[in-house]
Amino acid sequence: MKSIRIPALLLILTVNFSFLVAQDSSPVLTIGDESFQLGEFWHVYNKNRHLAGFEETPEQFADRFINYKLKVVEAKAKGLDTLASFKDEYSKYAGELKSAFLVDSAALKESAREAYSNMQELVNASHLLITLAEGALPQDTLKAYNTIAELRSRALAGEDFNLLAENYSQDPSVVQNRGSLGYFSAFRMIYPFEKAAFATQAGSVSPIIRTDFGYHIIKVHERIPNKGKIRVAHIMKMYEANRPDSELRAKEAIDSIYQVLKEGESFEKLAAKFSDDKNSSDRRGEMYPFTMAEMYPDFALAAFNLESDGEVSEPVRTAYGWHIIKRIELTPVGSFEDELPYITNMLSRHGRVESVSDKEAQNLALDNPAYRYLVNEYYDGLLIFEISDREIWQNVGKDTLALQEYYRENIREFTPAPLMTGTVCEIFDDRLFRKVSKIVANSEGSYNLVQILKENARKPEQFKLDEGEFAFVLNAPNPVEVAVLPASSVLKQYKGALFWQGEVRESEPLP
């Protein structure tokens, strides 16, 4: 039997906590040839100390720490740390943890500052794309570059940029937008494109940039401050396109409503009674919050020009009707500290976080107590699982075999919904649904869902946009059953048609 030796240092726990904190690298427990540091004890104790209902003193917790380590040493003595399954699982976790600790914090901070700076502005731009496949032959690359270089020269010479885009751009959406991208801020475009756009002054054409799609040039029309996200209500009178008589009737109606408003009538009452936008009129005219980049420019500019909550605009014309807009609430872009969690998440999601490459810097990052404690904690936990599995769970018998068989036969019941990172849009209008479906079907996987919606919806409340991470099965059959996922899909929902665009990750069955 292996001997156990507990040095005096552990006994001092009862009388000198400040001394112990200063001696984190000192061995606090020795079991045979295994030594454990005091810093590890405090790491585990402090993690448990924050749990609800945890009231143990360090002295009381020391007993549990010793028993836990005895179990770890026993598992090693039985050779469980030499099992291939153990080594594979531990190696996978250690590699993932190492990657997290090797993130270049200086580069991350610089990228976060750059992103936050870009979040302060909105760029209104157009682009022209000459596509180039990944791994293209040198002669094809040269041909594409020469083409975009000639077009840039023509744009710099004064030719109409959007006309050039309409005639020469190979972006499929150019048929609808003539190259116009509208307003956008940070994280709306792939990074090389965003970086070039925000580095280009208003009225100028960017240098040629290369992305995964090919070669681009960007014409920046305007740069304006980003005021954040706004919540408004509106009253809308629609008119038919290319029908002056219809537009005149809508204008007369909105002017009449505006006059009644000026006389003191309730905005909410008039919205519920007279607005042609039935989706928002049911909510007294209130719309979902939006940013400047998520709404039609004419409507968004009028909304963001309102200076105070409760202020009401004069009648505003858009391509879809006449509106009266009431500001409810404006949420500006937060401070750097407030926005940092969002920025860090987006940087990671978009692959903008760099890793430390210098060997000395890697060693410094990994020579970190937090890293050592976490990796050792996982190592010990795996061993405890292995020995518990052998001593307890493998003795359960036939009931376990029956449960395993049930699990195999019904594995879908134990599989969480896939997660999708990207954009989800719910469409409430049949005409818009058919239009978007056709554009998406003909786009061969290369399109901007937000841009398509902004250009084809007749009124703001015909769709709702959300961005982020979503459980992918929303009251619909699981669409993630094919080996290669499509670029987008449509799910019928109880409130409308749901479009999604983004990256889908299938979940693993629960262990």
Explained architecture:
This protein has helices at residues 8-11, 17-21, 38-49, 58-77, 84-101, 105-119, 138-156, 161-168, 174-177, 191-198, 244-262, 267-274, 278-281, 297-304, 336-349, 359-366, 369-391, 398-409, 430-441, 449-456, and strands at 4-5, 27-31, 34-37, 121-131, 180-184, 209-211, 214-225, 229-238, 290-291, 316-317, 321-331, 419-427, 463-471, 488-492, 497-505. It is of the alpha+beta class and 511 residues long. Strand 14 (488-492) and strand 15 (497-505) form a beta hairpin.
Would you tell me the overall average pLDDT?
79
Distance N terminus to C terminus? Answer: 35 Å
Give the DSSP E fraction (strand runs of 2 or more residues): 15-25%
What's the structural domain tally? Answer: 4
CATH architecture of the largest domain: Roll
- Give the helix tally: 20
Low-confidence stretches: 1-22, 473-496
The main pleated sheet reads as: 4 strands, antiparallel
DSSP summary, beta strand count: 15
Q: Evaluate the radius of gyration.
A: 31 Å
Helix/strand structural class:
alpha+beta
Q: Would you give the CATH topology of the largest domain?
A: Chitinase A, domain 3
Read across the widest sheet, the strand sequence of neighbours is 5-4-7-6
- Percent helix, as a range, is 40-55%
- What is the CATH class name of the largest domain? Alpha Beta
What overall form do the CA principal axes indicate?
A: extended
